[in-house]
Design goal:
Blueprint (H helix, E strand, L loop, with lengths): L3 E5 L23 H7 L3 H11 L3 H9 L4 E6 L13 H14 L2 E6 L24 H18 L5 E5 L10 H16 L5 E5 L7 H9 L5 E6 L6 H4 L3 H19 L4 E7 L16 H16 L4 E4 L13 H6 L8
Parallel strand pairs: 1-2, 1-8, 2-3, 3-4, 4-5, 5-6, 6-7, 7-8
Helix pairs in contact: 3-4, 5-6, 9-10
Length: about 325
């Protein structure tokens, strides 16, 4: 298998207000649930967004610079479960574009009924009730089976990530049971890759047993490795970031890779520069370039990686793949 050199198409089918603030100008919410409930013109605004935010030209551009895979976040309500609206035709179109252009797609179920993490990217900020009702678990598994059954006909279909970022507070055994159910449901329809997120516990001993004793095949383990959420990083010097990458994350990736293929499905250049006492002779882009090169080196020891995200409407350079390439911080050929 070739190394995955990928990018997330975030903010397209799962809204986050920081990624496209103009959509939320009259909405007092950061997530798509609030957007759908509070915006009287939500459906038309969404259709316009789905039509214009990312186009086939973007797929062609990504292919031209050597990107070979896209991680496509989709919501559990992709069929239009009330009060939401269906993006299903546009997801089909994205899969068709990827097929025509020659890009693989990892379909990532990014939200779950009741919300699995309480983040805006989970669909409902401040709520984590997905795991509290068995009906939510069943509905999630049913949606995953539908995804496998519906999209496996596309040659661009590379795999499914069963759920993005289940919260660290959710019982590990419950997550493992859900992962096992999801695996069984998806395997009824496809033998392609199935990806499991680490639930923010990448080194928990339970994973080794799960991946070695469950007779799983064509699976990967997803780690999201950021530099802007851990207080030790947000209040540390730049040397702390370097040490983390070379002396902690690299050995961790190598160790986990002994029993399961590792995928870094989200990473960025987000940092807190104001706390670092940066040397005056260097501008921020110098540090961005160092952080980018080091991450690409470390993550090359995994099976692949996907930057978060391809495009940001707001002025958030550290998260905007295309702008980072245009400013020669990320490489223009992969």
């Amino acid at each position: 298998m070739d190394k995955i050199k990928g990018v997330n198409l975030g903010g397209w089918f799962v809204l986050e207000s920081w990624m496209k603030p103009s959509l939320f100008s009259n909405v007092q919410s950061k997530d798509e649930t609030g957007f759908s409930l509070q915006n009287p013109n939500a459906k038309n605004d969404l259709i316009d967004h789905w039509e214009t935010f990312i186009t086939k030209a973007d797929f062609l551009y990504l292919k031209s610079i050597g990107i070979n895979s896209l991680r496509l976040p989709i919501p559990w309500w992709f069929q239009g479960d009330a009060p939401y609206f269906s993006a299903l035709p546009y997801i089909h179109r994205a899969m068709l574009w990827a097929t025509e252009v020659g890009l693989d797609v990892l379909l990532d179920l990014h939200t779950a009924p009741g919300c699995q993490n309480g983040f805006d990217n989970g669909g409902i900020e401040g709520m984590i009730s997905w795991h509290l009702d068995s009906k939510n678990i069943k509905l999630t598994v049913d949606k995953l089976e539908y995804i496998a059954q519906t999209f496996s006909c596309y040659s661009s279909f590379w795999g499914i990530e069963v759920l993005n970022e289940p919260h660290v507070s959710i019982d590990m055994q419950m997550i493992l049971d859900f992962y096992s159910q999801s695996y069984a449901a998806i395997r009824k329809h496809t033998d392609k890759i199935i990806v499991f997120h680490d639930a923010f516990r990448p080194t928990d001993e339970a994973w080794k047993e799960f991946f070695t004793n469950k007779n799983l095949h064509h699976v990967m383990f997803d780690l999201h490795l950021y530099h802007c959420f851990d207080p030790q990083l947000t209040h540390g010097s730049f040397d702390v970031h370097i040490d983390l990458l070379l002396n902690k994350r690299l050995p961790m990736i190598l160790e986990i890779s002994k029993y399961v293929d590792v995928l870094i499905a989200e990473w960025s250049l987000g940092m807190r520069y104001e706390t670092m006492n940066l040397a005056e002779q260097h501008d921020k882009n110098t540090y961005r370039k160092i952080l980018a090169d080091l991450q690409l080196y470390v993550y090359s020891h995994a099976k692949g990686h996907y930057f978060w995200s391809y495009k940001i409407e707001s002025d958030r350079l550290d998260w905007d793949f295309r702008k980072l390439i245009e400013q020669e911080i990320l490489p223009n050929k992969y």
